[in-house]
Each structure stands twice: as structure tokens, then as C-alpha cells.
Amino acid sequence: MTATVTEGRTERLERVSAATRTFMSRHAAMTPTFAALVILALLLVGAEASLRGDFVTPRTISSLLLDNAYLLILAVGMTFVILTGGIDLSVGSVMAFTGILGAQLLGSGVPAWLAVTVMLAGGSAIGLLIGVLVQYFDVQPFIASLAGLFLARGLAFVVSLSSIRVEDTGVLWLQQNRIRLGDWYITPTGILALVVVALAAFTLHLTRFGRTVYAIGGNEQSARLMGLDVARTKVAVYVISGFCGGLAGLVLTAYSGAGYPRNGIGTELDAIAAVVIGGTLLTGGRGYVLGTLVGVAVFGTIKTIISFMGAEQSWMQIIVGALLLLFIVIQRAIVARAERRR
Questions:
Q1: What is the CATH number of the domain that holds 73?
Q2: Where in this chain does the entry annotate a coiled-coil region (predicted)?
């Protein structure tokens, strides 16, 4: 009887193991995202244990979205670009430019709706310029977006060399108004960031445009042969990234209560890191917007833990750098496995 029970357990374990292998084989592209979820869980559990139950609280978790809403919006726009195999280094500077421009317009008495429209249009215009350079002038995305970075940063300093306070109640309401659900709360900027994630997920997974984005990242030449509109799509993803830069400028301006031309220095690297940690391949063609959400959550959690512990901010760069190396290795393993199957 003991032998029969043992054989039954062994058979069940083998079935579970086989099912796990089959699942992982079919969803290999999601491996980095699963890894990011595991790391996020470990960070939360470790912080909760180290800080004796003072970390995983409604206030802390609510603050994660509050403090990282602008980064989440930037990272969503970056996801579109990276999925096509491109890169956009301009987003941090676009955020600074649109933020200081909006603050200047509001301070001059321009209606809030018009100032916000100009901010979004300004970000989209810089994205359009980069997209045109990449697609129609065959400029490498790194160089084209680097030019956009310098352009946007220069324009920010042309608008003002110092910070400009925002006193418009409509803009400040986006950050100051808190919608409470018991001990939890969310601000309009947090809702805006989540809406951006939802719209991006819908666009990428349920529309022809989204399928074209993935096809370009997988094999641009094959996408052309399939009759997909490669040219317009490649330009459009940079416009989306620029638009998200403008929207992040609005969110950051509402968050800080001022526009500042030095805002966002290095933030484009934070956005890229969040996208990669969330599981999007830098070579394009594979990745998920929800993975980007997880990547931003990991990024924000690390930052919050370091703040709670009172450690040097340099540890932030060290930890994120180590995570990036880990996820790049995972990505290379996935690509190598896919190539062996061909």
C-alpha cells in the first residue's frame, strides 16, 4: 500500500512538473515579467520583515503610485518605442520642457485647458520630429532622440532659467485631491496614470496598430512584406512617447507645484530601466505594458525602502544596475532559446 501511495504521489509530481514546463515553454516571453513579480514580492516581504510591519501599509502602497505616476506614464510611452526596437532618450527633457512651458503659460493667465493642450502638443511635436528623423532620414533612434533631448532641454531653459510656481487650482487639484477608500487613497494623477496603462494595453493587444508594433519589433522586413504600415507606425510610436512626455510634465508639475527646467535629468534612463525590468526586450517584439507597470512598482519600491532605511541614494543606482544586468541575461537566454528552435 505504501508503494502504491508513493507511486501516486510521484505520478502527480511528474504531471505538475510537465504542466509547469509546458506553461513556461508556451509563455517564455513572460519569464522576465514573472521574475519581476517575484522580485517585487520578495522586496515587499523583506521590507515588511525588516521594518517590523511598518512598510506594507495602505499609506505606503498608495504613496507608491502617487510618487511614481509621472514615471509610469513615461515608461508606458517608452514601451511602445522599445517594442519596435527603438529607443527614446528625450522623454526626461520633454517632461521638463512641457512642465516649465505649462507653468509659464499658467502664470501668464492662459486658461488651464489651453496650457495643458499646448503641453501635450509640444511633447507630441518633439516626438514627431524624432520619428520623422528615424523613419524618413534613416537616423539611428539613439542619435535622433539624443538630438530631441538637447532640443527639449534647451527650449526648457529658453522658457525660464529658474523654477516657476503654479497657483492654478485646477492643475494643483490633480495632485492635492485625494479619493479615499478606507485607509487607501488615490489622486487624480494616479488615476490618470492607470488609465494610460489601460489604454496602452488595449491598444497593443487588441488593435491592428498594436499588432503592427509587435511585428516591426519582431522583424521589420517581414512586417513590410505582410503589407503592414511600418512607416506610419514607427513615427506614431515616437509621437506617443512624446505625448506621454508632455502628460508626465503635467503630472510632475501638479506633483511639485512648479515647473523647473532641470526636472527629469536622467529620468529617461529610469523609464528604460523600468521597461526592461518589466520584461520588454530591448531588441523589440516582446513585452507587455502590464510588465512595465510591475517594473515601475519594483523601481518605486526600491526607492521607498532606501528612503525608509535612511541609506545613501547611491544604493538605488547599484541595486537597479544589478537588476538590469539580471534581466538582460534573462532576455538573452530567451532570445537564444528562440533562435535554437528556428
A1: 1.10.3470
A2: none
The pLDDT value recorded for residue 242 is 98
Using one digit for the tens of pLDDT, what is the confidence trace for 142-154?
Answer: 999 999 999 999 9
Residue 248 belongs to a domain: yes
3-state secondary structure the chain: CHHHHHHHHHHHHHHHHHHHHHHHHHCHHHHHHHHHHHHHHHHHHHHHHHCCCCCCCHHHHHHHHHHHHHHHHHHHHHHHHHHCCCCCCCHHHHHHHHHHHHHHHHHCCCCHHHHHHHHHHHHHHHHHHHHHHHHHCCCCHHHHHHHHHHHHHHHHHHHCCCCEECCCHHHHHHHHCCEEECCEEECHHHHHHHHHHHHHHHHHHHCHHHHHHHHHHHCHHHHHHCCCCHHHHHHHHHHHHHHHHHHHHHHHHHHHCEECCCCCCCHHHHHHHHHHHCCCCCCCCCCCHHHHHHHHHHHHHHHHHHHHHCCCCHHHHHHHHHHHHHHHHHHHHHHHHHHHHC
Q: How far is CA 65 from CA 189, 212, 326, in A?
A: 9, 30, 25
Q: What is residue 310's predicted lDDT score, i.e. its pLDDT?
A: 76
pLDDT of 20: 44
Those residues of the chain that have pLDDT short of 70 are: 1-29, 53, 335, 338-342
Q: Answer whether 33's CB lies under 8 Å from 279's CB.
A: yes
pTM, full prediction: 0.89
Domains of the chain: total: 1
Asked, for residue 264, whether it belongs to a domain, the answer is: yes
